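Need a sequence for this fold. Nothing fancy.
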């Protein structure tokens, strides 16, 4: 019989409330659940740290929700896999699909189903100071990962966790009648049977509260779910600006080139910049070509030629430019700023004034930098996961919010994608607008925004083949071609409460007939078999998400 073993106190931190908190970083995954003494408990599979396992040889142990408050997203992942019928055993093989959920007032417990070690412990052993059982390898001396451990056929012993002199001990039970379990196939049949009768309502409620708390930090965003009891992922942090990761650089805003003379505070009847030829911020802004053509046909032709050769970065000194936004409506100051139709249609990069511009904060060329003004709702859709809508009507050209997240190198994006599988691509947004406009800026060297684990509410926006919003490039530093804002604007009037969607493939509008032809072609193409079907419901739906 192996002796009682000390194990890392880091993994279960003793909180002042007399409750241990399972440290998230040590959890591999939640494997099963049960009702134990009327308490919902979750079987936590441990990661194997280099230091002694938790406890050495242990692969999993049961914990109540109070102990799992710092690891709730593992419980959330478990509940999602159960409801999707995707549960797998320790060998990665699917187990009995789809446990039937019980209503919250269900009083079934594991004692009424097939006996398991927990039942034995409770009956015959003196009540431990902490009633949690642990499954561990009896004879294993080497430390291996959880998945390695469970893939071997071991007889395991069942023990209890005890608190003693400031440490947590895993102790083998002396109970003769204890049921030995084979760790190769967890959760095993008796566990699954017990789980099928055990409610998960308390965990679901705590997950919803935890998400509510996260969202509470955001102004003017709420969430609702009239579809089921779930909440958006807890493994997500709301941030309010880009988080730059290693290898990513952006210039200091203090160093941005701003518009100087003749710009000044409160100019242009207090609506800011008014010199479309001189303003240095507008150096690379869209040239007002009809105006130029009217004024000087020769210079106009020269400009077209240069544009064709050099793209956005042609010499436009003294040429008339287009301000990105319409002038504020003096009669109705509550009317939101609108992106000019030219920019909406042409997708031309938008240059806003910056910290070093003389025009001041009221300038009409400052919209996206002032942040979201519209109230957003994250809501559960019936067949597209979570989506986003706005509580107020949006007008065509109105700014909604930006797409933010971790900014990573393209190489890092490849690594993350290869680890996470194809669904990962949904959250990766390349900052590739200016690829080719600088020699060293290629599809392989541009940065990528990853919104999966960090971001704002726009990270929940779904795709539609007939979208009502679109993403535009907004820059405050005309010399930085690598880091700029990805800003969403309404491309049509959107009634309050309508789901906001953009086209993940950013395609231009096509005739319905052409789209239907392409959809039939895509459906017949076997290489599309593993693609996600698109549920946008649009007449011009292309059939799959990534075509
Ligand atoms: C950026 S996320 C959008 C938020 C997502 N619905 C969620 O619950 O987190 C992209 C993922 O949403 C789902 N999705 C988005 N648009 C969809 C559509 N039109 N049809 C089906 N699934 C969609 C897909 O699973 C896709 O991988």
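Here you go.
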């Amino acid at each position: 019989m192996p002796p009682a073993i000390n194990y890392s106190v880091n993994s279960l931190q003793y909180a002042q409330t007399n409750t241990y908190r399972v440290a998230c970083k040590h959890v591999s995954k939640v494997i099963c659940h049960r009702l134990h003494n009327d308490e919902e408990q979750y079987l936590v599979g441990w990661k194997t740290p280099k230091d002694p396992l938790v406890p050495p040889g242990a692969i999993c142990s049961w914990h109540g929700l109070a102990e799992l408050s710092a690891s709730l997203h593992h419980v959330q992942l478990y509940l999602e896999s159960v409801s999707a019928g995707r549960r797998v055993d320790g060998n990665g093989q699917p187990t009995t699909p789809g446990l039937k959920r019980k209503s919250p007032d269900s009083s079934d417990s594991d004692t009424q189903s097939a006996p398991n070690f927990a039942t034995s412990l409770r009956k015959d052993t003196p009540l431990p100071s902490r009633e949690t059982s642990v499954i561990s390898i009896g004879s294993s001396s080497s430390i291996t990962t959880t998945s390695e451990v469970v893939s071997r056929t071991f007889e395991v012993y069942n023990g209890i966790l005890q608190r003693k002199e400031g440490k947590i001990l895993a102790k083998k039970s002396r109970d003769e009648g204890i049921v030995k379990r084979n760790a190769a196939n967890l959760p095993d049949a008796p566990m699954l049977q017990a789980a099928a009768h055990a409610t998960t309502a308390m965990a679901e409620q705590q997950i919803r509260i935890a998400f509510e708390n996260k969202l509470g930090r955001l102004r003017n965003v709420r969430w609702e779910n009239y579809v089921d009891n779930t909440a958006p992922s807890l493994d997500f942090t709301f941030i309010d600006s880009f988080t730059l990761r290693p290898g990513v650089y952006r210039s200091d805003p203090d160093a941005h080139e701003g518009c100087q003379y003749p710009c000044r505070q409160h100019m242009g009847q207090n609506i800011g910049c008014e010199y479309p030829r001189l303003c240095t911020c507008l150096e690379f802004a869209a040239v007002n070509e009809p105006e130029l053509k009217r004024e000087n046909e020769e210079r106009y032709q020269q400009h077209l030629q240069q544009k064709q050769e050099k793209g956005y970065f042609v010499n436009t000194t003294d040429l008339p430019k287009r301000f990105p936004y319409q002038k504020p409506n003096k009669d109705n100051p509550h009317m939101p700023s609108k992106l000019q139709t030219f920019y909406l249609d042409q997708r031309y990069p938008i240059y806003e004034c910056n910290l070093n511009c003389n025009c001041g904060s009221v300038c009409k060329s400052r919209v996206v930098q002032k942040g979201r003004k519209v109230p957003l709702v994250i809501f559960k859709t019936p067949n597209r996961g979570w989506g986003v809508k706005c509580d107020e009507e949006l007008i065509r050209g109105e700014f909604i919010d930006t797409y933010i997240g971790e900014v990573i190198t393209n190489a890092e994006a490849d690594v993350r994608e290869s680890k996470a599988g194809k669904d990962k691509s949904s959250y990766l947004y390349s900052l590739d607008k200016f690829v080719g406009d600088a020699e060293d800026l290629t599809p392989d060297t541009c940065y990528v925004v990853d919104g999966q684990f960090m971001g704002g509410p726009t990270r929940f926006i779904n795709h539609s083949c007939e979208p009502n919003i679109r993403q535009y490039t907004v820059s405050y530093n005309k010399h930085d071609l690598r880091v700029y804002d990805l800003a969403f604007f309404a491309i049509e009037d959107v009634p309050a409460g309508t789901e906001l969607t953009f086209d993940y493939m950013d395609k231009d509008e096509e005739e319905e007939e052409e789209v239907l032809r392409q959809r039939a072609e895509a459906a017949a193409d076997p290489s599309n078999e593993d693609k996600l079907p698109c549920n946008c419901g649009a007449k011009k739906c292309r059939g799959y998400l990534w075509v």
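For context: The radius of gyration is 29 Å.
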